[in-house]
Amino acid sequence: MKIPVEPLRGFRDILPPVSTELRTLMNIFVETASKHGYLEVIPPTLERFELFALKSGEEIKRSMFVFKDKAGREVALRPEATASIARIYLKHLRAKPKPLRLFYIVNCFRYEEPQKARYREFWQAGIELLGAEGLSADIETIDVLLDYYQRLGMIDSIILKLGNIALYRKAFNKYGVPEEEQDHILHLMDKKLYNEAAEYLAEKGYEELSQKLKNIWNNKDNLEKVLHIVEQDGQELVNEIKYLVRIADILRNTYPNLNIDIDIAFARGLAYYTGMIFEVKVPGFPVSIAGGGRYDNLIEIYGDEHVPGVGFAIGLDRTLIAMKEIGKTVPIKASDTASILIIGEELLGYAISVKKILIEKGIVTTISIAQKLSKMLSKLSESGVRYAIIIGKKERDENKVTIKDLSTREQVTVSLNELETADGISAIFKK
Q: Is residue 51 in a domain?
């Protein structure tokens, strides 16, 4: 029986060179997060549905892959990772000294309509800083994110958008808006449906708040005017706007080429945010490539313990696509490549010994049995292999190898001892 070979809609087979580029972005993230003091955790792909349903937000709840397992439990493929990190903390890390610095690289799943840079399976890398509050923790989180994009050579090509959910949470609480209704309004804001959000508030009886928010949104590009609007409801709300200005000032000093946009009307789709939020965008690119923020109540909701948190997630697929669109290349570390050509299977054992030497030197190495040497050399050259390591009976008996540089056509025969002690194959030709 023949089966369809096309992957499911919204899913992909990721092949070279894209797989190599994506893996490189992952490796650079591991290096970046580790140097900032973060430790890796690997959450499971499948979690209980309620873990995400509780506070992930309306959009994610609608787009989750949800089903019952063989034990009848309602489970979901993870749509994002922060909820899983919160559960991991409650299960394993409560007794650890705080703050905790954790990072992850995971594939996530959302049943969304596939479009440019949106897939139903996608890759995220992120950090979570647990047990730390205030400016220092928020700045540290954004700094890790910006350091990553600086390493990719993108810092002058991105826009960091800053917003503050605390401004809205405190306004909602002042006017007595229930949390579930708050989450719905923030969802509408995330979708840029500001008129619908204002109408919803008015319908629920919060006409004064509805008018104030409309006034804020209509003047979102004029911070001084927004400050004047919110100061009528107390200094506490004013301070939330000034907090964003402090963050922006510090980041501009550290990253002078960074474009920062303070957007008071900005909201994100995840319902657990309680404070400062941010996104990374590339001008002309249809979706954000990274985002995060502060969530001080999530672990308390799950486990009755107050542990403030802040973090971000990078869309690795989106970042890769955006890089290519703006003409940036993934900084893949080039390795010398070699192919060992043996004249007969009886030389395989010796060839494996040679291969081990080369691999330990960081040289990508394969072994092939050559029927016609000239034809094989031509094939290797076309495939981009730099060096052919030729082994015949004479080379084996004398503990030697013949090396041919396929780019220059130079050829030299050396002992295994010379091969082991040389600083790479290129050094052998420079002698």
A: yes
C-beta neighbour count of 183 within 10 angstroms: 17
Residues 235 and 123 sit within 8 Å (Cβ to Cβ): no
Q: For residue 406, what are the domain limits? A: 337-430
In this structure, the dihedral spanned by the alpha carbons of residues 420, 422, 423 and 429, taken in order and rounded to 10 degrees, is -130
| Contact status, residue 77 vs residue 98, Cβ threshold 8 Å | no
Separation between Cα atoms, residue 309 and residue 131, nearest integer Å: 6
Kindly give the pairing relationship between strand 276-281 and strand 159-164: antiparallel
Residue for token pair 């509805």: 210
- Provide the strand spans (E) within 131-263: 159-164, 259-262
The answer, yes or no, to whether residue 55 has pLDDT greater than 90, is no
* Number of compact structural domains in the chain: 2
Identity at 430, one-letter amino acid code:
K
351 and 312 inside one domain: no
End-to-end CA distance of the chain: 60
Q: Which of 325, 357, 384 is the last residue of a domain?
A: 325
pTM given for the model: 0.90
Are 179 and 213 within one domain?
yes
Q: Residue 241, Cβ neighbours under 10 Å: how many?
A: 20
Distances (CA, A) of 73 to 77, 82, 335, 364, 385: 13, 22, 48, 46, 52
Q: pLDDT tens across 91-122, in order?
A: 999 999 999 999 999 999 999 898 888 999 99
Residue 8: inside a domain: no
Vertex 187 angle, CA 181 and 191, to 5°: 145
Q: What's the one-letter identity of residue 418?
A: E
